[in-house]
Amino acid sequence: MGVVVAIDEGKQPKASVKPLVNLTSADMARVNQLILSKTGSDVEMIPEVANHLIDSGGKRLRPMLTLSAAQLCGYTGDHHITLAASVEFMHTATLLHDDVVDESDMRRGKQAARMVWGNQASVLVGDFLLGQAFRMMVDAGSMEALDVLSTASMIIAEGEVMQLAAAQSMETTEDDYLAVIRGKTAALFSAASEVGPILAGSDKPVRDAFRSYGMNLGLAFQLVDDALDYGGSKADLGKNVGDDFHEGKITMPVLLAYRRGSDGEREFWRTAMESDAADADALAEAMTLLTKHTAIADTVARARHYGEIARDALAPLPPSEHKNALLDVVDFCVSRVS
Amino acid sequence: MGVVVAIDEGKQPKASVKPLVNLTSADMARVNQLILSKTGSDVEMIPEVANHLIDSGGKRLRPMLTLSAAQLCGYTGDHHITLAASVEFMHTATLLHDDVVDESDMRRGKQAARMVWGNQASVLVGDFLLGQAFRMMVDAGSMEALDVLSTASMIIAEGEVMQLAAAQSMETTEDDYLAVIRGKTAALFSAASEVGPILAGSDKPVRDAFRSYGMNLGLAFQLVDDALDYGGSKADLGKNVGDDFHEGKITMPVLLAYRRGSDGEREFWRTAMESDAADADALAEAMTLLTKHTAIADTVARARHYGEIARDALAPLPPSEHKNALLDVVDFCVSRVS
User: Fold this and answer.
1) pLDDT at position A239, please?
2) What is the pTM of this model?
3) DSSP 8-state secondary structure symbol assigned to residue B75
4) DSSP string, B40-54
5) Which of A85, A287, B69, B159 has the highest local Cβ count within 10 Å?
């Protein structure tokens, strides 16, 4: 569930998140200020743990979606700042809990909070941030936005439980897997995007467009992340290559290679994914099979499919800088592996 | 943090929760129905884990407080049902996470969920229930109630982190400890009580009265629970005698005995609480010291103090069956150890 926007300045990708970053930079400065102030607590451990993760260089794509969507829809108030910070808090809470659930050692290129302060602190500080996120949503004063975000919070957990139940079982189908990532990743992208037009009081078709944009962008994003887990360098990724493999986490590339493989290959995957003993040799063998079945490239092709849906979701909107920036984000997400 | 209302039918305590149970029974049937329907999910593990705990015979004191407070204040709508169920979901989510944090084996006389489904499921199903709780608050449609409950959710986590930071340090003062239980236990009692008058649109003094009632009842409740941990039988408690001791959790009885003890005794407490090696002999020694310094009886005396504040908080309200029932709850909480 380690979703990191890896930007490699040297590679000159075709598309970039820079237009989005530029258009939202003034608002993001306010969001970052609010985030800092809202992790404050008399209980020292709370800002320590929270800021360890918050300061670790996540690109804050989700709050930027909220800001851009609100601006595109002509919103002129201040509540998009509050909701954007809420969205980032929800995301941070999820990451803290995920690292406990996945027993991850690293996150965004540094030690996971649970390795420094323990699982207990990660669970509880995650709970604190989730509570704070809801308080901030109340501050924003929109019952509709609260509805969308609280529903997302439930669906995220549902997706994670689904993944837990499916974990280490090779019987996971592609549809099962899509249901998992729809929950654990795409639901928050979707909610983050939809609350923009909600604040602006936009019509239902516009809300629906942003919900669909976010959902499909999230799916594309997660699939690319899955591909990167087998294809990126450690520096790009902020975590180790093959982490998903070593955790026995069944993602799209593995799922495709398994379904397309021979009986012997399927036996290899079952042994490797269902045991805790997968080593470097096993990873090398896995990479060979993934390449043989073009499983990584085809995972990216699946991602491109959802990216197209995201683009078309916004198609009816009139041209604008924000629209272009949001479309660029889709291209960027897909292009970071190609 | 295992807060269980232990009712021993044989003992005939002076006061009882029965009047409260009777007055809220029709509404509680609806709350229980709603709870059942809202743990539903296509992801099987969610209702399994949630219902394991929800069906385990907790007395649902917190939702009864919401119902009774709403009725006392003349509320005639349906949203008190929704909020009461939300409150119980918040509580259940907290218990699931607490068992992970405390590494507890038992809860309400049966295996903790984490022993059956693992820590991962307990963390994630807790998150699901918290998300569902917020969705239900949105359904109830009161922004003020959302404010009170989301603030409580943050303060609960803050109290738990405070306890984690203070855990196994004998330097915890009584004031520190009160700050912990104000968060981890009393904040939810307080919020559960206050949302009743909020729904009813009651005046600020009435809201304030219920908030204060809940807060002080919660403090009394937790202190009695602390005393019971060293004084109750396993059947009364739904967990093992001395659990707090074995977990190195510093509670009021220990805190009092430590401060009142000799240098040698303090050395004993430090060794026992700061190590993981406390055994049955150590517990026996601890019991001797607690008795010597009347630490359990004085913990109950402290509880009685907060109980009195809770009673006086409601004093200005006109006489009613609900008022009497709520006052009985205070007496019941304190009397269950005497």
Assistant:
1) 62
2) 0.92
3) -
4) --SSTHHHHHHHHHH
5) B69
The reply to whether B2 falls in a domain is no
Say whether residue A90 is in contact with chain B using an 8 A CB cutoff: no
Going by pLDDT thresholds of 50, 70 and 90, the confidence category of residue A338 is low
Kindly list the residues from chain A whose CB atom is less than 8 angstroms away from the CB atom of residue B101: 120, 123-124
Enumerate the residues of chain A whose CB falls inside 8 A of the CB of residue B152: 131
- Provide the ipTM: 0.91
Q: How remote is the C-alpha of B165 from its chain's centroid?
A: 20
Average per-residue pLDDT in chain B?
A: 91
CB contact under 8 A, A100 and B123: yes
Look at residue A12 and tell me whether its pLDDT is greater than 60: no
Tens of pLDDT, residue by residue over B193-202, are 999 999 999 9
B34 belongs to a structural domain: yes
How far apart, in whole angstroms, are the C-alpha atoms of residue B147 and residue A135? 6
Contact flag A158-B43 (C-beta cutoff 8 Å): yes
User: Residue A316's domain spans which residues?
Assistant: 18-335
pLDDT band at B277 (very low <50, low <70, confident <90, very high): low
CA–CA distance, B312 with B334 (Å, rounded to integer)? 15
Q: Which residue is it, tokens 């592996």?
A: A337
**Taking CB atoms and an 8 Å limit, are B164 and A100 in contact across chains?**
no
pLDDT digits (tens, 9 = 90+) for B141-181: 999 999 999 999 999 999 999 998 876 688 889 999 999 99
CA distances from B303 to B171, B227, B228 (A): 22, 10, 12
Which residues of chain A have a CB within 8 Å of the CB of B158? 41, 43, 46, 128
pLDDT tens string B70-90: 999 999 999 999 999 999 999
Question: Measured between CB atoms, which of A128, A134, A162 is closest to B134?
Answer: A134
Rounded Cα gap, residues B102 and A120, in angstroms: 8
Lowest mean pLDDT among A75-89, B52-66, B70-84, B259-273: B52-66
Tell me, yes or no, whether A7 lies in a domain: no
Contact yes or no for A44 and B165 at CB 8 A: yes
Residues of A in contact with B143 (CB under 8 A): 138, 141, 143
Confidence check: pLDDT of A263 > 90:
yes
**Euclidean distance between CA atoms A183 and B319, whole angstroms:** 50
> Could B160 and A127 be called an inter-chain contact, meaning their C-beta atoms sit closer than 8 Å?
yes
Between CA B191 and CA B175 the distance in angstroms is 22
> Per the domain annotation, does A88 fall within a domain?
yes
Torsion of CA A100, A105, A106, A111, to 10 degrees: 100
Q: How many domains does chain B have?
A: 1
Average pLDDT over residues A89-111: 89
CATH number at residue B129: 1.10.600.10
Residue B155 touches chain A, beta carbons under 8 Å: yes
Of A86, A94, A40, A47, residue with least CA distance to A63:
A86
Query: How far apart, in whole angstroms, are the C-alpha atoms of residue A35 and residue A63?
Result: 11
Q: How far is A289 from chain B (nearest CA, A)?
A: 30
B147 touches chain A (CB under 8 A): yes
- What is the total residue count of chain B? 338
Tell me which DSSP letter residue A43 carries. S
